[in-house]
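Subject: sequence -> structure tokens, single chain

Hey, anyone have a minute? Need the predicted structure for the following. Not urgent.
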Amino acid sequence: MKIDKRITPPAAAKTSATKGKGGGKTAAPTAGGSDSLTLTESSARVRTLEAQLASVDVTDIGKVEAVKAALADGSFTVDAEVVADRLIDHTKEALRKRPRKK
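Reply:
Had a minute. Here:
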């Protein structure tokens, strides 16, 4: 038995194995005719779900109303230590993401 040491990427192997079959896949039409895109059913479903999740409102209306009421009656307090900690964390993160000069 001969062992083939060539490594075939999974995407290339899958493409060559399913070429010409097209079962359960949707091909997007192209303007140039030479390039094509094939999406599996599950990939299309994931994209649809991502779009639906992006449109979901995650605002806690109860919390917003409680803060508005506390601001209106003057009982809202700010914890300066928490604000300072969050500012420091935000600054650290911004500095980490900043490109370094060479």
